[in-house]
């Protein structure tokens, strides 16, 4: 009953029930533990991955629902220009305290900037409000996203 | 239950006694534990915290658990400073749990900075002195003629120099200097301390590398879920183990008997599977039966009703603080102000759910990978539970996805040890669901206060009375709920009467970030704002009156070393600074108002001003927070320091606005983030922070910025609406009643 899924541009065979959420297949069937467990009900965003470029909560996405769509995780983020720019901005702004939610924050932020390279303050809030940071590094997360967006704006002038 | 929490207090005392000894230890130990005459090509261990390789790489041990407070970066910065290291060549390694080698290792109470400031400087200076001694011997000159520049010893007269890497193996054979003989750097010469340095693990975090406890992977590892009673104090009657074992992926299911101490182990059923999701899902097949005893009738509503009854009943069961003549002060008062305040139980909910990995090894050693704020306490608990000598328990400290006080209690460590003991040779990772976490925490205790102040004809506050209802710990209240006579403003009242009643409960209680203070700041600073209002002045003015003529208290030997007592000058300085920053007393935007709060906790003085408005949908909106903090004469890492303050402020606002744990039928009603709603990005205010430097050694920042923001917010809401918030979380509808 192996399920075939494309993850970070590789075809992976996963021997698990179809109703197993992608999160637990990533972490414990494939050993890709960058994607984090936070709540299990899609309320915190720690488990955010990209499905065909859209930010989705992997704790609530059954393996059987993925089909031909392509999964991309934090381990693959540096392969994208925007992802890499955000990773650097996260370090420049010293965004994190405990850091546990940051993989999910980065995945949500990347999906946002891929869709909207120069979001407004309110658009950042709207795109990021599904991601909880218990340490409350929100001010810095927002600054880091705005920094990358500003660079984008400058590059386009 | 009371026995259990008594045990906890005793173990806290034990830790504290060890910590006292550890002070001497951490000053002397680094010099003892070192490699003797290492081979030239091998890295040389100069002190327990400093190892230098021939290629000049310096490895510094991070001794205390990292929960996001930045200590794994900041303590090694202190070592590197006195070592005069080149920071670019420094690597940081996390210590294993080892009291004898590293002294006390804990993340709590904002203790790490004050407790380690001097020992970390000394261990760095010791290694530096040994490197200088090695160069002096090699060159046949006196040590006094040598000095250091980052990463090398230099002789100014000749211009020659040698790198630390070149000198390290000889340095490791040099006599260890007496720490008292070491000359420490002048603050003005610091090159590393005071620099904004990013978290040492941050590059790994943004790449998603496995560094947290729950990321631990071992060959052949299995996963465990643990089913325990939702009703606190219950015992297990039975469960359908066979039904759970028949679920997909399940390897085993077995009963684990508790030892009656919720801080160690309560009854439950372990379900083991090849994947945690499968183990957790199989729990639903267990259909366990519990004996709830007397506890299923307990509820927070019941406690609140009982508290009101006790406060209305007049005289409390116990007087625990008395000064002057409060009855006389009330009798002769020109004005009496009285109000009831209350606050709820709260959960910690760090983002990384509780987990721990354990392996019962063939050689009889229990090896563990533990995200614990008190790994030494956890090691002791596990050894006690298993009946093993402490040297047969190895605890590796992992990075933690948050702590907030939850991981001061090590119940998950004992749980996984009890499970792994049944499966020798197989590594087991226990993970809790978020529901397990919310429903079986060690909660910030709820509390109820009836406060009364006497005011004389000149409008001066002459006395304070508090009738406090708290929870039982046998004969004394649970520690993090204590309203002590030496808290502010009680300590400065000529007339004081503190009384308390206690309620029995089985709800486990623990320390939540800024314990005591996170509740008492709200109660006392809100009430003082009421007194100020009733006497026609503002809260900053009243605080200045209260401390008028008060002298600084002397420095005493505390848990973290020499501890300065309350200093009214520091209160004045942060109060002045915060009110200046906020343009306090000047007009604000239409529909906005300011509120002020001050608190001194964990050796840090913080004054904060909050600007609020109510949105069209009658939601509380916090626009700005101005914060002035005094944590001594030196900010070690401005990056981490500011991050702690910003986080604490938002944490406090979140608590005030929307968090409460309620108990019904002996069990917690809340279960996950949909009904325990943490702050999210859109509610983040502008936060403006300034440091007030005072002539004191640096102290911790994990906690003290949190308490004052809560009363600053509720006082701002009073200024805006004329309605007092006397109960948390804030019931917005009451502001319009």
TrEMBL record, chain A:
<dbReference type="InterPro" id="IPR012675">
    <property type="entry name" value="Beta-grasp_dom_sf"/>
</dbReference>
<dbReference type="Pfam" id="PF00111">
    <property type="entry name" value="Fer2"/>
</dbReference>
<keyword id="KW-0408">Iron</keyword>
<dbReference type="InterPro" id="IPR006058">
    <property type="entry name" value="2Fe2S_fd_BS"/>
</dbReference>
<dbReference type="Pfam" id="PF01799">
    <property type="entry name" value="Fer2_2"/>
</dbReference>
<keyword id="KW-0479">Metal-binding</keyword>
<dbReference type="InterPro" id="IPR001041">
    <property type="entry name" value="2Fe-2S_ferredoxin-type"/>
</dbReference>
<dbReference type="InterPro" id="IPR036884">
    <property type="entry name" value="2Fe-2S-bd_dom_sf"/>
</dbReference>
<feature type="domain" description="2Fe-2S ferredoxin-type">
    <location>
        <begin position="1"/>
        <end position="77"/>
    </location>
</feature>
<dbReference type="InterPro" id="IPR051452">
    <property type="entry name" value="Diverse_Oxidoreductases"/>
</dbReference>
<keyword id="KW-0001">2Fe-2S</keyword>
<protein>
    <submittedName>
        <fullName>(2Fe-2S)-binding protein</fullName>
    </submittedName>
</protein>
<dbReference type="InterPro" id="IPR002888">
    <property type="entry name" value="2Fe-2S-bd"/>
</dbReference>
<keyword id="KW-0560">Oxidoreductase</keyword>
<keyword id="KW-0411">Iron-sulfur</keyword>
<dbReference type="InterPro" id="IPR036010">
    <property type="entry name" value="2Fe-2S_ferredoxin-like_sf"/>
</dbReference>
TrEMBL record, chain B:
<dbReference type="InterPro" id="IPR000674">
    <property type="entry name" value="Ald_Oxase/Xan_DH_a/b"/>
</dbReference>
<dbReference type="InterPro" id="IPR012368">
    <property type="entry name" value="OxRdtase_Mopterin-bd_su_IorB"/>
</dbReference>
<dbReference type="InterPro" id="IPR006311">
    <property type="entry name" value="TAT_signal"/>
</dbReference>
<dbReference type="InterPro" id="IPR052516">
    <property type="entry name" value="N-heterocyclic_Hydroxylase"/>
</dbReference>
<protein>
    <submittedName>
        <fullName>Molybdopterin cofactor-binding domain-containing protein</fullName>
    </submittedName>
</protein>
<dbReference type="InterPro" id="IPR037165">
    <property type="entry name" value="AldOxase/xan_DH_Mopterin-bd_sf"/>
</dbReference>
<dbReference type="Pfam" id="PF02738">
    <property type="entry name" value="MoCoBD_1"/>
</dbReference>
<dbReference type="InterPro" id="IPR046867">
    <property type="entry name" value="AldOxase/xan_DH_MoCoBD2"/>
</dbReference>
<dbReference type="Pfam" id="PF20256">
    <property type="entry name" value="MoCoBD_2"/>
</dbReference>
<feature type="domain" description="Aldehyde oxidase/xanthine dehydrogenase a/b hammerhead">
    <location>
        <begin position="207"/>
        <end position="294"/>
    </location>
</feature>
<dbReference type="InterPro" id="IPR008274">
    <property type="entry name" value="AldOxase/xan_DH_MoCoBD1"/>
</dbReference>
């Amino acid at each position: 009953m192996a399920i075939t899924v494309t993850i970070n541009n590789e075809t992976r065979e996963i021997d698990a029930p179809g109703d197993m959420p992608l999160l637990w297949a990533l972490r414990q069937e494939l050993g890709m533990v960058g994607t984090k467990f936070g709540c299990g009900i899609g309320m915190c965003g720690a488990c955010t991955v990209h499905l065909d470029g859209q930010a989705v909560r992997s704790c609530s996405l059954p393996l059987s629902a993925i089909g031909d769509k392509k999964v991309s995780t934090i381990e693959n983020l540096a392969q994208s220009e925007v992802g890499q720019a955000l990773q650097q901005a996260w370090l420049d702004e010293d965004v994190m305290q405990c850091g546990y939610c940051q993989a999910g924050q980065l995945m949500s932020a990347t999906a946002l900037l891929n869709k909207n390279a120069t979001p407004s303050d309110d658009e950042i809030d709207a795109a990021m409000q599904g991601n909880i940071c218990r340490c409350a590094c929100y001010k810095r997360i927002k600054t880091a996203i705005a920094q990358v967006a500003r660079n984008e704006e400058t590059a386009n002038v | 239950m009371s026995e259990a929490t008594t045990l906890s207090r005793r173990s806290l005392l034990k830790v504290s006694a060890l910590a006292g000894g550890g002070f001497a230890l951490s000053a002397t130990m680094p010099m003892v534990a070192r490699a003797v005459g290492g081979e030239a090509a091998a890295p040389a261990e100069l002190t327990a915290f400093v190892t230098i390789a021939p290629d000049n790489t310096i490895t510094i041990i991070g001794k205390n658990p990292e929960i996001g407070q930045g200590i794994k970066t900041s303590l090694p910065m202190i070592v590197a400073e006195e070592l005069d290291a080149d920071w670019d060549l420094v690597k940081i390694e996390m210590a294993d749990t080892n009291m004898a080698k590293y002294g006390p290792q804990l993340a709590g109470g904002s203790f790490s900075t004050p407790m380690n400031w001097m020992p970390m400087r000394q261990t760095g200076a010791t290694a530096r002195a040994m490197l200088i001694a090695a160069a002096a011997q090699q060159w046949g000159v006196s040590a006094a003629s040598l000095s250091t520049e980052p990463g090398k010893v230099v002789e100014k007269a000749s211009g020659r120099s040698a790198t630390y890497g070149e000198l390290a193996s000889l340095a490791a054979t040099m006599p260890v200097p007496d720490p008292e003989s070491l000359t420490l750097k002048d603050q003005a010469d610091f090159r590393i301390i005071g620099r904004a340095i990013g978290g040492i693990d941050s590059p790994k975090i943004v790449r998603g590398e496995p560094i947290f406890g729950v990321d631990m992977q071992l060959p052949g590892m299995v996963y465990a879920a643990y089913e325990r009673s939702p009703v606190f104090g219950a015992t297990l009657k039975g469960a359908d183990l066979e039904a759970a074992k028949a679920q997909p992926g399940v390897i085993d299911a077995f009963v684990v008997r508790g030892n009656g101490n919720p801080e160690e182990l309560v009854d439950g059923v372990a379900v083991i599977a090849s994947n945690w999701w499968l183990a957790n899902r199989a729990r639903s097949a267990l259909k366990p039966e519990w004996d709830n005893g007397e506890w299923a009738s307990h509820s927070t509503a019941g406690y609140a009703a009982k508290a009101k009854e006790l406060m209305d009943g007049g005289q409390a069961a116990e007087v625990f603080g008395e000064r002057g003549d409060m009855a006389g002060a009330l009798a002769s008062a020109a004005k009496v102000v009285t109000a009831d305040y209350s606050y709820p139980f709260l959960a910690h909910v760090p983002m990384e759910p509780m987990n721990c990995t354990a392996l019962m090894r063939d050689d009889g050693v229990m090896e563990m990978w533990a995200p614990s704020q008190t790994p030494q306490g956890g090691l002791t608990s596990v050894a006690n539970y298993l009946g093993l000598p402490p040297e047969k328990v190895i605890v590796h400290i992992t990075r933690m996805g948050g702590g907030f006080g939850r991981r001061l209690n090590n119940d998950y460590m004992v749980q996984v040890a009890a499970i792994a003991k049944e499966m020798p040779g197989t590594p087991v990772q226990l993970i809790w669901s978020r529901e397990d976490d919310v429903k079986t925490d060690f909660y910030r205790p709820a509390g109820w206060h009836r406060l009364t102040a006497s005011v004389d004809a000149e409008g001066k506050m002459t006395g304070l009375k508090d009738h406090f209802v708290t929870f039982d710990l046998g004969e004394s209240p649970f520690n993090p709920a204590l309203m002590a006579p030496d808290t502010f403003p009680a300590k400065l009242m000529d007339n004081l009467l503190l009384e308390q009643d206690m309620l029995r409960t089985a709800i486990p209680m623990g320390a939540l970030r800024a314990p005591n203070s996170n509740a008492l700041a709200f109660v006392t600073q809100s009430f003082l704002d009421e007194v100020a209002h009733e006497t026609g002045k503002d809260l900053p003015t009243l605080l200045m009156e209260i401390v008028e003529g008060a002298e600084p208290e002397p420095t005493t030997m505390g848990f973290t070393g020499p501890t300065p007592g309350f200093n009214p000058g520091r209160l004045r300085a942060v109060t002045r600074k915060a009110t200046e920053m906020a343009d306090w007393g000047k007009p604000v935007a239409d529909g906005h108002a300011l509120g002020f709060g001050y608190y001194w906790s964990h050796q840090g003085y913080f004054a904060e001003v909050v600007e609020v408005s109510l949105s069209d949908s009658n939601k509380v909106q916090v626009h700005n927070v101005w914060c002035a903090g005094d944590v001594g004469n030196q900010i070690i890492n401005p990056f981490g320091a500011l991050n702690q303050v910003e986080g604490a402020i938002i944490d406090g606002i979140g608590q005030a606005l929307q968090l409460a744990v309620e108990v019904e039928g002996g069990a917690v009603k809340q279960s996950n983030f949909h009904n325990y709603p943490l702050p999210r990005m859109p509610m983040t205010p502008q936060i403006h922070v300034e440091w007030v430097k005072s002539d004191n050694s640096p102290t911790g920042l994990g906690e003290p910025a949190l308490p004052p923001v809560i009363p600053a917010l509720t006082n701002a809401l009073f200024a805006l609406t004329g309605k007092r918030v006397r109960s948390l979380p804030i019931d917005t509808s009451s502001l319009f009643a």
